[in-house]
From TrEMBL:
<protein>
    <submittedName>
        <fullName>Uncharacterized protein</fullName>
    </submittedName>
</protein>
Length: 117
């Protein structure tokens, strides 16, 4: 294996506060790499079945989120962001916001990931 290939499989990462918390709470028998792999597999599973959206809903949501920093609080209050958007017809935005309001946080994340954000 070349050095370049090895480095690609063993990247250096910054331990942001959530990652540092994971690293600090590892069981003695588990590596950080193994724990992150488990989390990534669960995330992949959670995102594998996003809520279905119509083409119009995808367009409204994409326009609403375009240029937005998608932090956890933004996802939590996504319904409000949609309602406050000027990305389309107000009644369509209200309908989409109402639908998003009924979604779990995981469904919201899966939906956003399916749009490539």
């Amino acid at each position: 294996m070349t050095d370049k290939a090895r480095n690609k499989r063993r990247p250096s990462i910054y331990l942001s506060p959530p990652l540092a918390e994971i690293a600090d709470n590892l069981p003695p028998e588990k590596s950080l790499s193994a724990r992150l792999a488990t989390i990534a597999e669960r995330y992949e599973l959670a995102c594998s079945q996003p809520p279905e959206l119509t083409d119009d809903e995808r367009q409204l949501l994409g326009s609403t989120l375009s240029g937005t920093l998608l932090e956890p609080l933004m996802i939590k209050y996504l319904d409000r962001e949609i309602e406050d958007s000027n990305a389309g017809d107000p009644s369509e935005l209200r309908d989409l916001a109402a639908r998003v309001r009924e979604m779990s946080y995981a469904e919201r994340v899966a939906m956003i990931e399916s749009l490539g954000f």
